[in-house]
Amino acid sequence: MSGSMVIDGGHRLYGEVSVSGAKNAALPILVATLLTQEECVIEHVPFLSDISGILEILRCLGANVVQHEDGTVVTKVVDETACTAPYELVNKMRASIGVLGPLLAKRKHAKVSFPGGCVIGLRPIDLHLKGMAALGAEIEIEHGYILAKTNHLKGAEIFLGGAFGSTVLGTANVMMAATLAQGTTVIENAACEPEVQDLANFLINMGAKIQGAGSHCIIIEGVKELHGARHRIIPDRIEAGTFMAAAAITDGDITIKDAKLEHLMGVVDKLREIGVRVDKVSENKDGLDNIRIRGTKSYKPCVLTTLPYPGFPTDLQAQFVSILCLASGISNVTEKIYPDRFMHVAELSRMGAKISKEGPTLMIEGVNHLSGAPVMASDLRASAALVIAGLVGRGETTVSHIYHLDRGYEKLDEKLQKLGAKIRRIPSSIS
Ligand code: EPU
Question: Which residues of the chain fall below pLDDT 50?
Fold first, then answer.
């Protein structure tokens, strides 16, 4: 369901909220199930339209897929003949480029639509292709598709970095392909994001031999085959960070349950710097943390730069810009991952924010209030930033095109309502 979200600003958030499974871990992990014909059971998969999209791609590639109400997804490949990920599906979601590695490794052929650019910037895939070529795949681009084939992938030493540093999905793609390659693969400058580690843990459960995931050097010793496995997805650190921002901006007092504090240190550091209180309250039996966030009435400005993990994540930049719009001074925010990821800026300006931009840097002059307005969501995280701004905007904010939010946040409106936000969804037919 899409449409708009209407928010009456000015209500403090308080109470408890649980974090869903991480979208960006679940997507590559679901794709990795293509590496075996045995059954895989993935738990804590969030209900999101991006997840539905990847499950559709798995079905199109010969997998039986059942998504249970408790968030468990059971997959089993029953037919390995299909090797094409069509434009209509890949176009909806860039994570589908992740099928390239598993298809090449397991089926020796892959025809995957070239994903193209998107609203947050160019998003090239040259590093994915470089990695596959280094493993011995022959690659051509024809009629908008990547055509890749191999007799057998061979382990190699690969430096996986470009102008903007490491690549998360590129590392995932090459790591998946290398699990079934002959010999040893070394990925240098690998992405260290927790989602890459989670994928590596799943692959290890499937019988892969992987060392070093979570560091800049991952070593994969190819095995003949992988088997089915059960795995539980890590908590979504970006969803947790988004609730932290929502609590902070409303001068709220909330406890975020079942998160992983360790995955959020770059974010917590900035929150504390601007004046938010962040405390670990307790740890549950699964080793997950309950984290209390206490806001204040006025925040200090700061200098914030997005960086690969463990630095401040680009996926929380927009949400923090919303907070800094109300800080008592001038903040600088530099985007080092996606230099064009600023679609929220024009919309926040409609709410009274004072932001200027030079290259990939924003200068934000804090104002003493935002005012509710009709604004348009343009991508997932920009939409979240607008909802967060709407929570404190004076009067009513209507965020339209919220299908972007449903791609990556599970029941965001319901979770915010339980925390005391006055937010409602209007379906597109009547908005
Ligand atoms: N890049 C290249 N060449 C490549 C691949 C990437 O130059 O072949 C560049 C990108 O253009 C960017 C930088 O490298 O400047 C990092 O991109 P990366 O490949 O790491 O991004 P991704 O793997 O495509 C994932 C997340 C994004 C998140 C980024 C960065 C998924 C499904 N997506 O994308 O999440 O912003 O890592 O952390 O895991 C989101 O959830 O809203 C989202 C966009």
Answer: 431
